[in-house]
Design brief:
By secondary structure, the protein is an alpha+beta fold. It has a single domain (about 1-135), classed as HIT family, subunit A. Helix content is about 20%, strand content about 30%. It contains 3 helices and 6 strands. The protein has helices spanning about 55-70, 105-110, 130-135, and strands spanning about 1-5, 10-20, 25-40, 75-80, 95-100, 125-130. A 6-stranded antiparallel beta sheet has the order 1-2-3-5-4-6. Helix 1 runs antiparallel to helix 3 (about 130-135).
Amino acid sequence: MKYSLPFGTFVHQHKTTFNSSPKPTSVSFTKLSTSLAYQSQSESIRKLFQKDVNMLRRMEEIGHSILDTFNVPVSKRKMGFHIPPFNSIHHLHLHVQSLPYISPIHRLKYPFVRGFGGYEKGFSWFAEIGQAIRILEKGHRVTVAPC
């Protein structure tokens, strides 16, 4: 699915894992993992500036729309970015996921680290969308170090 915007195109790809519930007549989502790729010159969240906040807000809006489609409760949603050099795909893309994670490896791959003092985020290779927006709004850059 593509979303065209004045500042670029978003491409939505997803994979969904289903798990049978104890009731044989029902099926429930155990994990929804989606990636929103923004086709632009931006290779990562580290390369964005304050002027890019509206683009991130739109990505967040599309992410919520996708999760709404699958009836994922707000409390079970996680969206964010891997921060280079801890990424394997070299274009800006937002991870859109439902919780809880099935695998403990995913908890390590997408950690949420709260900030401290005046920082929005602590030392981590993953920044949640809200953290990234607040960091950029302050005129700072999103990095692995606390920011």
